User: What shape does this take?
Amino acid sequence: YVRKHRVTQHRQACVVLVRECDAVRRVTCSSARAAPAQNDSTLLHLLTRTHADQPNCVVKNDGVYDFNGTVSVSTFPFTSGVSQPLREVHVRLMGGQQDAVWFSIDFPADPTRVALEISVTVAGGASPAVVSSNFMLLAPPTALVLPDVTVTATVSDTVQADGTAVITVRCTGGAAVGVVLTTLAQGRFGDQLLHISPTEPRSVSFVPLEGFALDLPLLKQTLRVEHMQQMQ
Assistant: This one.
């Protein structure tokens, strides 16, 4: 049921969520670059099933190093955009043995009005490092009950020391899901397909392509923001 994504030079951590009834309905996967060098080869999978009498989640270590960290699962209501903690599990996994820990979460009663936020962090230090994070929709996009929100994106007036620009994305009227930025300027956005809370604006970097200088006026003039609710 789960297709593992090969990890280039063991530099990424990955979380996979699978939900099934009689058969697998969907598989969603995203990845984030692992920050701490000692856990570079840690590959974790999060699987879920809908069997009431069994644990429905598993964290698995496919790496060669031991893993010591925390899995946090929260609900993300579309109306408010304020995350609500659902479950937090501390895990210690041996490396090289495909060690795994099972646990359970209670799925939201109405999967069309919330999503899941899932993160895996490495223990240690004042600020634990996130090695993998996922935003999981529990229903097809066409079935989601999304609020009629207004999303705006503002480009900073100054160029950063590294030659990039900072874009602040805000929303009002509820949470925005599937936010995508586009522009005619030559470059790439540091993040895409965002979910944004009305209480927490997101900052996104715009990085010019190699060999191109940042065209700030063109970026401001042609910046476009779209989100999932507009497509329903």
